[in-house]
Design goal:
CATH topology of the largest domain in chain A: Alpha-Beta Plaits
Number of helices of chain A: 7
Largest interface: A-B, 56 and 57 residues
Radius of gyration of chain A: 28 Å
Strand content of chain B: under 5%
Structural class of chain B: mainly alpha
CATH architecture of the largest domain in chain A: 2-Layer Sandwich
CATH class of the largest domain in chain A: Alpha Beta
Helix content of chain A: 25-40%
Number of strands of chain A: 9
Order of helices and strands of chain B: EHHHHHHHHHEHH
Strand content of chain A: 5-15%
Oligomer: heterodimer
Number of strands of chain B: 2
Shape of chain A: elongated
Number of domains of chain A: 2
Radius of gyration of chain B: 21 Å
């Protein structure tokens, strides 16, 4: 099976300390109010056991198998890497149109306040390049996040996946499953927050109307030109009526 | 064979700007098409952006090449517009944007039929409209050239406007205003499509059709045979005769 980097998260271990968020911000120089990852708080259950209970759900870009952000990108600046299944952004090719930001059901993307182009979690590509785990994984004090190739039982995440084949769940919107690669063990907490994956209006208009219309217009023009060429080849001696040669050719 | 009488039609500056323009449009069209890479769009198929990007060493380089040529194209045009405003630009705009509906609608109908079906069929088909089989006399530019020029000028303005929004959105748009970039991409594509259709016609008429061959040659030499001017641009020819 192809390599697919992902995470297996045990939400029950998360204590909402925000260490992963801080570590990510530092490791990836994420500016200002921008965040590449999050912790979603579930509703408090005061009836549970003696002290009540609350589930915290850590998350970040899910590196989906069917990424709606990639579908919404007109230039291919964002794409799913064939090598490791991470959804990456080519910043040189990104013109900052923001359609991927709208298309993501998880709100995992944002317009980088400094660079003014789309930005999101890439599982810390710069840290992985030197053999380190993503910053959020390394820093987590309760080890709620496990990272690695989901299809490799030797990796921390792959091992958990193999052990919990039927129990690991994805957090998805009921109307648009993008097949995310972050799996949760046990009670994942808040489930209904992802929005429906939707293509932005300008993209839909392009795809459904502008693209076919332009193809028809250019195609018909091509056909018209071919008809003219056909006539040019068939009717070799096509000349105006002789009267036209006189200056007063227009009266008959 | 004695050489036919030639009359000047294009200046050296006009010839230069034409071919400079043609080269830039050609590059911008084919690089622009390769900047689209999405399975749901890909106007020429998925192989095309891949192949062009490989030549340029990646999509990011292709994007830079696209806007560098676009800005160069625009800069040369701005210089030309200011330098030649009175001599070339104003007269060109005046003549291409002045239509005489009766004459020009008739010419468009007849010329299209004649180009596809020939003079005989055209004469038959326009008879019910009360027209004869002659093309109405034309000015320096014929009605088709005028409409094409209008379309291409307006298309170019849209391409420039949307191109600027895409290129400089990082410097003046807030995150909430990026919808403007999104629609710019779509509108840029539409404007490029419409102007491409007009350019297909333009290239056929000039470079392939036999009737306009002298006009094509004049884009290199600057002159057309007097006979050609008399038959294809009669009003212009008569104007020259009067001078």
């Amino acid at each position: 099976m192809a390599k697919q980097l992902g995470m297996v998260v045990d939400a029950g271990l998360c204590i909402d300390c925000k260490g992963c968020m801080a570590a990510c911000k530092v490791a990836n120089e994420v500016p200002g109010d921008n965040w590449r990852n999050w912790i979603k708080s579930g509703d408090a259950d005061w009836q549970a056991k003696k002290r009540g209970r609350m589930v915290f759900q850590p998350g970040n870009c899910m590196q989906c198998d069917k990424p709606s952000c990639v579908s919404a990108c007109p230039t291919g600046a964002t794409y799913k890497s064939k090598a490791d299944g991470v959804v990456v952004i080519d910043r040189g090719l990104c013109i900052g149109c923001g359609q991927c930001i709208k298309a993501c059901p998880y709100g995992a993307r944002f317009r980088n306040e400094k660079l003014k182009v789309a930005d999101k979690c890439d599982f810390c590509s710069s840290r992985r390049a030197v053999g380190l785990e993503p910053a959020c994984v390394s820093t987590c004090p309760t080890k709620a996040r496990a990272f690695g190739d989901l299809n490799d039982p030797a990796s921390p995440a792959g091992k958990l996946m193999a052990q919990n084949k039927d129990k690991a769940t994805q957090v998805v919107n009921a109307h648009s499953n993008t097949d995310p690669n972050i799996y949760y063990l046990g009670d994942a907490g808040l489930k209904s927050w992802p929005v429906k994956a939707q293509m932005p209006g300008a993209f839909e208009f392009w795809k459904n109307l502008a693209d076919p219309a332009v193809k028809v217009v250019v195609g018909l023009t091509g056909l018209g030109v071919l008809a003219m060429l056909g006539k040019q080849l068939m009717l070799k001696n096509d000349a105006p009526p002789p009267e036209e040669h006189g200056e007063e050719g227009h009266h008959e | 064979m004695s050489s036919p009488k030639m009359i000047p039609r294009h200046t050296k500056a006009g010839i230069f700007i034409h071919w400079f323009n043609a080269a830039c449009w050609f590059f911008l069209l084919f690089s622009g098409l390769a900047l689209i890479q999405n399975p749901e769009l890909n106007p020429l198929g998925a192989w095309y952006p891949g192949a062009v990007r490989a030549v340029f060493g990646g999509g990011a380089n292709l994007l830079v090449a696209h806007w560098v040529v676009a800005l160069l194209w625009l800069a040369v045009w701005v210089v030309y517009l200011f330098w030649g405003m009175n001599r070339f630009v104003a007269p060109f705009l005046h003549s291409t944007f002045t239509l005489e509906p009766n004459r020009d609608i008739q010419w468009m109908i007849k010329k299209n039929l004649q180009m596809t079906l020939g003079y005989k069929m055209m004469a038959k088909l326009v008879k019910p409209l009360g027209y004869d089989g002659h093309l109405p006399p034309q000015e320096y530019y014929n009605a088709g050239q005028k409409l094409a020029a209008q379309g291409i000028i307006m298309g170019a303005l849209v391409l420039i406007g949307t191109g600027f929004i895409m290129l400089f959105s990082k410097y003046f748009l807030t995150a909430a205003d990026t919808w403007l970039v999104q629609w710019s991409i779509t509108v840029h594509f539409i404007a490029a499509g419409v102007t491409t259709a007009l350019l297909i016609l333009h290239i056929y008429m000039a470079a392939i059709s036999k009737e306009e061959r002298p006009a094509f040659i004049s884009m290199f030499t600057g002159t057309v045979p007097a006979e050609y001017a008399k038959h294809h641009h009669q009003l212009w020819y008569e104007e020259l005769e009067e001078k």
